[in-house]
Amino acid sequence: MEKRHYLAIGGIAIAAVAALIAWSMSSGMAARQASGHAMFTPDLTGIADGAPIAEVLVPAAFSSEAQMGERAFNAVCAVCHGANAAGINGTAPPLVHIFYESTHHGDAAFYSAAQNGVQAHHWKFGDMAPVTGLTKADIGNIVAYVRALQRENGIN
Length: 156
Hints:
The chain has four helices and no strands.
């Protein structure tokens, strides 16, 4: 092949790569990991401090385990994570959020966070301290409640 053919093929390849990059950025793919999770801290501009972060749909009915979890959540977790796990801006994140879907933060992550605390890694609210006074059964019920809320909101 002549040199100009190589140059033409190279130019086409560069144009194709540039088009792919532009397409991925316009579709939001550049801001996502392979797992589909945003790699950036969510923008909370426009949400007042102390206000809920997420709008949460609540299921018409909960399992008995999730009902017990709702009571435990309201008694211990809602002070930081808000009613229906919607989060409280300036305090703690919503647990009804894609970051906490079961394929990214499995149930064991909730047990670990409650028992050991957790270092902040998705949000800028600071670290979560361990929660005292919860049994493993309590945490399991809370997880059932949060997962029911997540499912109702399209997070699986």
